[in-house]
Automatic annotation (TrEMBL):
Pfam families: DUF538 (PF04398). This is DUF538 domain-containing protein. The lineage of its organism: Eukaryota, Viridiplantae, Streptophyta, Embryophyta, Tracheophyta. It comes from the Eukaryota. InterPro entries: At5g01610-like, DUF538.
Length: 137
């Protein structure tokens, strides 16, 4: 795992880590409210591969009110970020009925659809309006 982090930009502490996470979401055209983080320990990004990781002190559960969706963010989240997409995502689960399937990929459509798609390892894809993941939702 350490080799994936080689050459990465690393920010430690909640303020600096959150700033880096938000700036990466903005840069890659992803909604800034996608990662409601708390007590961030470290955020890192390797520009050459797109590998991003986030370490936080405790698991966070966030309810996206606009779509009534409860999402769980583990203490370690990682994946590969590219334009309007996060692939091989680990550490994020969305509640579906009684299950918590892991989210493996997030993709944002080009305008004008304004849709965001969440794909699980089971091959299930859920689509929502991007506004549901704007900051403060």
């Amino acid at each position: 795992m350490a080799d994936q982090k080689e050459g990465g930009i690393v920010k430690t502490g909640h303020e600096e880590g959150l700033k880096l996470a938000v700036s990466l979401l903005e840069e890659f055209g992803l909604p800034v409210g996608l990662l409601p983080l708390a007590d961030v320990i470290e955020v890192g990004f390797v520009r050459s591969t797109g590998y991003m990781w986030i370490l936080q002190k405790k698991k966070v559960e966030h309810n996206f009110k606009m779509i009534s969706k409860l999402v769980s963010y583990d203490t370690e989240i990682n994946g590969f970020v590219s334009q309007k997409r996060i692939k091989k995502l680990k550490g994020v689960k969305a509640k579906e009925l009684m299950l918590w399937p892991p989210v493996s990929e997030i993709t944002v459509d080009d305008q004008p659809t304004g849709k965001i798609h969440f794909k699980s390892f089971a091959g299930i894809t859920k689509t929502f309006p991007v506004e549901a993941f704007a900051a403060g939702q």
